[in-house]
Write a structure and sequence with these properties.
Order of helices and strands: HHHHHHHHHHH
Structural class: mainly alpha
Helix content: over 70%
Largest sheet: none
Radius of gyration: 24 Å
Distance between the termini: 40 Å
Shape: globular
Number of helices: 11
Length: about 260
């Protein structure tokens, strides 16, 4: 009996703080009309959620944001891996690209938004460009560091086996640098999701969770605003768990 009680207590312990916060939220929502506008009653949130699910609004915006974030992530990460590899393999490329890369990545992404809007407009391409840039930075850095930190003994083995430059890269450098590259892509996923939401808030003329949040704020639908924030948090958690799990499986497969 004791182990069962201990297991139940361990399972319920993480629920204590959320339960207290929900009770406090519900109490605050009953302190008057102005308080109810800020602290939307839980029953109103439930009604708003049912409304968004029933008419397909939530599914539409979630699908648009996920598609946009993953498309920008793939494009930015692939370009980042290629650029980081080129810089690691070529001293000339490092001297040409490195200073420019390290200079531009110090500029906050929001500082580039006016230029992106000027050059690319405010449509879908501009949003994907923002996401791609956000994913590009960490993948370049991690790929470059991963390639450069490959143990010299691995390179010597490649030389002893008389491998060509391409074979050395494919069979020696890339497998050895793979953990760093995977880490870069995992970090890029976080930045890509944040950039996706930022782009939707700045360029709101298309479906997306950020656009739904902004439109709800403008129309005074605080229930939808709060639901949008909750959905954003849950999606970020799920994406992070999926990418972390995938990274562990790849690392495990590599070690096996």
């Amino acid at each position: 009996m004791k182990p069962i009680w201990q297991a139940a207590r361990a399972a319920l312990r993480p629920m204590v703080l959320p339960a207290i916060l929900l009770l406090a939220w519900q109490w605050a929502s009953g302190r008057g009309a102005s308080a109810a506008y800020v602290f939307v009653p839980l029953e109103q949130l439930w009604t708003g959620l049912q409304e968004l699910l029933a008419d397909g609004t939530l599914a539409l915006h979630v699908a648009a944001s996920l598609e946009r974030a993953l498309t920008g992530l793939v494009c930015g990460a692939l370009l980042g891996i290629a650029t980081g590899t080129l810089m690691a393999q070529s001293r000339v490329a490092e001297r040409l690209i490195g200073p420019l890369y390290h200079t531009i990545r110090q500029v906050p992404l929001l500082g580039l938004v006016p230029l992106i809007a000027l050059w690319a407009g405010s449509g879908e391409f501009a949003k994907l460009l923002i996401i791609g840039i956000a994913a590009f930075y960490p993948t370049v850095l991690n790929t470059f560091e991963g390639m450069r930190q490959v143990d010299v003994r691995y390179r010597e083995v490649g030389a002893m086996l008389t491998l060509t430059r391409a074979q050395t890269f494919r069979r020696v450098l890339l497998p050895a640098a793979l953990p760093a590259i995977i880490t870069g892509v995992t970090h890029a996923q976080v930045f890509a999701w944040l950039a996706c939401l930022g782009g939707e808030l700045l360029f709101a003329a298309a479906p997306g969770i950020g656009s739904l949040l902004l439109a709800s704020e403008q129309t005074g639908r605080m229930d939808v605003v709060l639901l949008s924030v909750l959905v954003i948090s849950l999606l970020a958690l799920v994406l992070n768990l999926l990418f972390t799990r995938a990274a562990r499986l790849l690392a495990r497969g590599r070690s096996a």
